[in-house]
Amino acid sequence: MTLLLRSLALQPTPRRPLWLMRQAGRYLPEYRKVREKSGGFLAMAKTPELACEITLQPVRRFGLDAAIIFSDILTIPDALGLQLRFAEGEGPKLNNPLRAENDVAKFCARAESGGLDLEYVCAACRLAAAALPAEIPLIGFCGSPWTLACYMIDGEGGGFWRARAMRYSRPDLLHSILQTNARAAAESLCGQMQAGCKVAMIFDSWGGLLGEDYEEFSLRYIRETVAAVKAKCKTPVIVFSRQCAAHLAQTAKCGCDAVGVDWQIPLSRAREITGGKIALQGNMDPATLLADKKAVQQEALKILRDYGNAPGHIFNLGHGVDKNTPPENIQTLAETVRSHILP
Ligand code: 1CP
Q: Which domain does 118 fall in, by range?
């Protein structure tokens, strides 16, 4: 079994597996080169050969222990008719956000009748899984139902005020969006698993906006997604709910195999809370990678020592790699984690 799968199963490993959220992207010169030639993010994501190439780039360069398919959480709203676009120099935008009751009704009806066509994502997974060496598993992913709803309702990143307000003004509408998203997320993950991914990951990047409503509007639907994936594909599932340290105990019990932890709490505390019953992924502050080599080494060692020698740690960041990260700092991180041999 690969290092990552062993850690997910809480089995001992000779050293900690390492991969990084957003390990492919604009900080890599080889990514920028492909991006320039292809005409932008969506063209890359929708061309399986290019998506495969970009997936492999960071693994080749740094010798990481997992690859994550190059795609985006917003492929689901795009496939369900909300039309994703990237305006130059801006973030992603959806042309048809869900604002009125009628938009939501049409959206849910379409999702139920039409299914989800993300064949280009599956095609990229098949290529990448075939190109990777056996010891490097491919991770497939999706956004959590709530995080998808944030973009679907507001139409773009920012404060997500419309999505947050809907839980007070029309919780019934929000619940129907979330229910539809839970089914779509599970379907998308299962498609990626059937196309060769060995691990599924759910990104709940905006779970932290919900406060005490996290269970009702996010975790409940993550639980449903995890159960649906487990019923069909049996692959391990990682759940990353950002800025949700206060809800770690509940998240750890949602049926997943690992939780992603951000840098709000030390891993040792996260382990106390989760009782060692589940693997933990994280949790270096990505800003560390904008500092110097010495800081990267020190922080990496601090995290490795803080977790201790127990099995079940997947080294990662607490959020994605920043676009201003010097690649040589990731090289330093990879060398530091690789040379930390467990007794
Ligand atoms: O070249 C570019 O300008 C595109 C930048 C970019 C990239 C590299 C976007 C647009 N998406 C991606 C790839 C991506 N997105 C991956 C690829 C695999 C890898 O990790 O290497 C993954 C896993 C995602 C997931 C994603 N997309 C999340 C969840 C994780 C997180 O970072 O919180 C979210 C919230 C998105 C939305 C999104 N897509 C792109 C951007 C810039 C954003 C954020 C928009 C915002 O600010 O709200």
A: 3-339
The three-class DSSP label of residue 282 is strand
Written as one string, the DSSP assignment of 142-167 is EE-HHHHHHHHHHSBSS--HHHHHHH
Are 142 and 224 a contacting pair, CB within 8 Å?
no
pLDDT in tens, 99-153: 999 999 999 999 999 879 999 999 999 999 999 999 999 999 999 999 999 999 9
Give the distance (Å) from ligand 1 centre to CA of residue 25.
Answer: 9
**pTM for the predicted model, two decimal places:** 0.97
Assign residue 112 the CATH number of its domain: 3.20.20.210
Name, in order, each residue with C-beta under 8 angstroms of 315's C-beta and a sequence gap of 6 or more. Answer: 16, 17, 18, 281, 282, 284, 300, 303, 304, 337
Cβ atoms within 10 Å, residue 295:
15
Q: Phi and psi of 170, rounded to 5°? A: -140, 65
What ligand 1 atom has the least distance to the C-alpha of 143? 29
Q: 31-43, pLDDT tens digit by residue?
A: 999 999 998 999 9
Catalytic residue among 72, 103, 154, 262: 72
Distance 309 CA to ligand 1 centre (A): 32
Active site residue 99: no
Q: In angstroms, rounded to a whole number, what is the distance separating the alpha carbons of residues 53 and 220?
A: 36
Q: How many domains does the chain have?
A: 1
Task: Return the amino acid letter for 175.
Answer: H
